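Incident log entry.

Two folding requests arrived from the same account within the same minute. Monitoring flagged them as a possible duplicate submission, but the sequences differ. Recording both here for audit purposes.

Request one:
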Amino acid sequence: MPLFIAAAFLIIAIATEAIHTIRVRRLAHLAFGPSGRPASWVVLAAPLRVLAIAALAWGFATLLMIEPKTHNSQQTDAAQQRHVVLLLDVSPSMRLVDAGPEGDQSRMQRARVVLESFFDRVPIRQYKVSVVAFYNEAIPVVIDTKDLEVVRNTLNDLPMHYAFTGKDTNLFKGLEKVTEIAKPWEPDSAVLLVITDGDTVPGKGMPKLPTSVRDVLVIGVGDPVTGKFIAGKNSRQDISALRQVATRLGGVFQNANNQHVSSTAIAKVTQEVKNRRWQDLSQREYALVAISFGAFLIGTLPILLYYLGTFWRPGVR
């Protein structure tokens, strides 16, 4: 219906501009001097005026007929919702104390410190946060929460490894669970954070992430050189394996054992997809753009015609 209304106004505007052009021609020498011609750009005035009227008609008709939009800080359109998925290693090796600048933090404590820094430097309130804990299997701890205290409690050195019965850490089980959770979400709407010491990473069988996961940040914790003994083997952060995992997932790896995640890496994984900006606009936003465009032309054309419509000035100089 808005298109039909705009078409009707377009036809009426074309007809009135044609009548106006005939009248201007009769007074051309009086208005524009001996040449009877205005400035060269004036030929665009009529088409621009017709276009402006049609844009105003379509914009107002659209706003009149679509459902009114209310702004609620607690509600977000599904197409605009953003997600952060935290894939957290809770294996016993994450409780070893060899992390941090002084080596006096457990790897889980270091993970909490790094994530607190991450949350402080991103607009985390714009995201819904999910936490998936993995050891030999993967268990969703919380799905799509805006309560950061729940997330912080998850990171508060809870012995979640007791919820699992196996022995070998399997990162890919966690990625499979993330895929299951994130698959229904909108494309390019989620950021995946993987926090682990990389103690055991399979060499093959990498799950394919869904289109909803836009970027991946793999964060390593734990001493990458010395390590600690647990269950009869030396456990340390495996930087080469974690960097390979990040590459295979199309993401970025950061060794956060001594330093926080760099601002460059955070900016990369949290930036909006700029080439989708116009695609995210609704019919309401397009109508507002059309109204603004039409009103601007209708308001500025008379001023431009008055001052720049002709360079002929009558009278004695």
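Request two (distinct sequence, not a duplicate):
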Amino acid sequence: MSVLDVQHVEKSFENVRAVKDLSFSVQEGQVFGLLGPNGAGKTTTIRMIMDIIRPDKGDITVFGKSNNFKVRDSIGYLPEERGLYKKMKVFDTILFFAEIKGIPPSKSSNLARMWLEKLELEEWQDKKVVDLSRGMQQKLQFICTIIHQPKLIILDEPFTGLDPVNTGLLKDVMLELKQQGTTIIFSTHLMEQVEKLCESICMINKGQNVLYGNLLQVKQKFGQNRIRLSFDGEAAFLKDTSIVEKYDNYGQYVELTPANGKNSQEILKIAAEQVTVSEFKIAEPSLNEIFIKTVKGEVAS
């Protein structure tokens, strides 16, 4: 079942076309990645889904219905810009957002305590929002986003301000919600998190869909032409463009792309003649590499 359908949507601001003929669908229970560089049109698209702004052309349906206030009550939206009241206490903030969504205080109090404990904020419940760190504020805003138990959650840069521990905590909560049947759309620049969490993606560049589909199929489309190599010694062959098209040095290892006409066995033979090889692995391209190639226009959409 399709939870969200975006069909041939366009949006302009004065002379700038922010979104151009954009189409994608999100299936029920998916974690879906909405990706793209800064200024690509992601936030504009999310705001149209939320009916904050209206598209100039095209249709957006949520749960098979056109956008309206009742439909929006089934969505939890975490914007990139925080929308918290700085002088309000943490616990009262959650109750306030719960009340907006129609949850009675008798129920919202228990939900608030449960989520504060789950996201390790219970010791801060009587503090003002302004007293929280950036990461704590992000976790609080996440709680306010999901307090009404929405069927669809839209998260715009949800890991902003979070350290690795709290990023992992939020990731676990997202997966727990997914297991409960919640559909999650999230936009982020952290490609590693997309690879870990998303089943499908839509990559936008200059307002247009440039890459869309199941993540595994997308990665297969780009082939397995990357080699991961760990070694000791001076690898002069890496700078020979007749052997290696390009490489990225990560200190402990390099990832390289063979030049046209060179296969992995030839690379291994040449490497073994110059250095002591401790690891040689053929790897699928990372989503980060796919992202860069696609945005730069090095591949067809």
